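To assess whether the prediction recovers the assembly geometry, we first specified each molecular entity separately, as shown.
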Amino acid sequence: MNKVCSLQEAISKEIHDGMSVAMGCGLESLIPFAAGYELIRQKKRDLTLIAPISDIQFDQLIGAGCVKKVIAAWVGNVAAGLGHNFRRAMEEGIPRKLEVEEHSNFTIGLGLRAAAMGLPFLPTRTARGSDFSTDEQFRPLVCPFTGQELLAVRAIAPDVSILHVQRADQEGNAHLWGNLGVVVEAAAAAKKVILTCEEIVERELILSDPNRTLIQGFFVSSVVHAPLGSHPSPTQGYARRDDDFYFDYHKESRTHEGFERWLDKWVLGVKDHRGFLAALGEERVHRLKPEGNLFSPPVSFNI
Amino acid sequence: MKHTLRELMVVAAAREIRDGERVFVGMRLPLLGFAVAKEIHAPNAVGIFENGVIRDWPALDSIFTMSDPPNVARALYCGSLLDVMGLLQSGRVELGFIGGAEVDRFGNLNTHWVEENGKRVRLPGSGGAADIATLAGRCIIIMNHEKRRFPSRVRFITSPGHGEGSGWRAAMQLPGGGPSRVITSLGLFSFDPVSREMILSSYHPGVAVEEIQSQTGWPLRLAGDLRETAVPSAEELAAVRKYDPRGVWTS
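The predicted structure of the complete assembly is given in tokenized form:
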């Protein structure tokens, strides 16, 4: 089944107000920023965002008023420090009050894995001495075999996971590589998956390397062709990190008014992802592309 | 050769890494410290990053995040966060580096919220720090040393150190050994093996013990052999500058 559609269609069809959405699950890479901007343009509201660390993506969506709650381990700007919109929402309720379900990176991964495996929770030895471990998403648990004290992490099952990958076929069978963060767990934990990808490729190419098909098409409901759709975060082999974009964002989002100007320039003032890339400019886009290739040689699957 | 304060801190971090250890590296100063240790005294150390990357040699270029392409290309392994957290939980990671907004006398770290002028300031949260603090064989804490960052008791424990002191980690059944060293902008600290309280073991060149006390929110205990921090050797400095040639992290 051909699931290829535009980013506008995918977001409009799959994401509704009040839903829980995992996005940015590669940690600092493969973050689907283009999809985040489309959520903002379509004025989605009351979303619950899920990920360990999504660099500035959560801060942007919080500042734009799309978010009711985050289920996360860390919200900020990885290279520059604090997230100003996150702070304003938590400290002053601007633009609206925000709930946080606190986690560590490990417990977000375990919550997603639990849902991916059809379990209500998974046990762990982490975080037991942390003050957030008494929150309701965690429960003390005694191992039935050893008597050891553990922490149960409640399953996290997103309504939708939005994931950026290097390449997929039109059914959503996806090849991804580099660091994986919790991308694979997020795909299998969610009820639906929207993929944005650098390239849409033939099924034959996917079948040539089954170890790399880390997301299978049967999880996926929409496939969107969005080259540089992770900008400013990197996609290995396709896009470098645009460090200046993060530092500029940090400066410009220092006040709510400054953030609104940023939003007008980069999100609301452009029609779509193509318009965003045009605003970045050809020269900047060119600089973000890796020069040449660092190939991994083919392996033989011969029978 | 004259060194900067940051170079001294990087070298102090590097000296904590023993040959053959598996290390949760983190970013900035400890990342450079890992490269320096590999170059000088720990050629078989392995760096582990919570995004799923395992590297046994430094990144191909300077990086701002662990997921930047030069840290991924030609890595030893690329997998998932749960893969590397599994290594940590199963006791296979000897050392981890963490930092925070506040640290207290028992090495507990807070990266959740602080108060400034009576107003609550929200910070980013744990990330992987709580996991490293709980599960790594031992932890090294790196901090700027300011009074507001060194209260006697943190407001919120994000990443547990030695909790309330003697026996606390054992009673909580925390598998890792907890903090063994604090590297600050003023000196180096260890922890008393029994009481688990932070002890000043050396002061950086040009820093008076009284200054460190004035920037610390509890009466400091001093090591019996308190001394000046050993300055970087020429070889160590050359290694720092090889990996940070423009002084992005160390100027």
